[in-house]
Amino acid sequence: MTTQATVYVSNTCPYCTMMTNYLDEQEITYETINVSQDPEAGKRLVKTTGQMGVPQTKLNDVWILGFDPEGIQKALRGESQ
Which residue has the higher pLDDT, 78 or 47? Predict the structure, then answer.
């Protein structure tokens, strides 16, 4: 199974950096969407998840809120949150 990840971040979010660094360490490829630079993406994110904060990571169709290494590992194993 190919791992598919998208990380929603903002310019001033230290937890976003922690999340992307963690994904790099785990050798998980991901797409980054910066909601500071793309407000429409931010609106779609809130509509989809009901959450306003970042980081929010969609990994194999599982949403992980915040910097949550355990959530990442669960999603990799195919477990839901």
Answer: 47
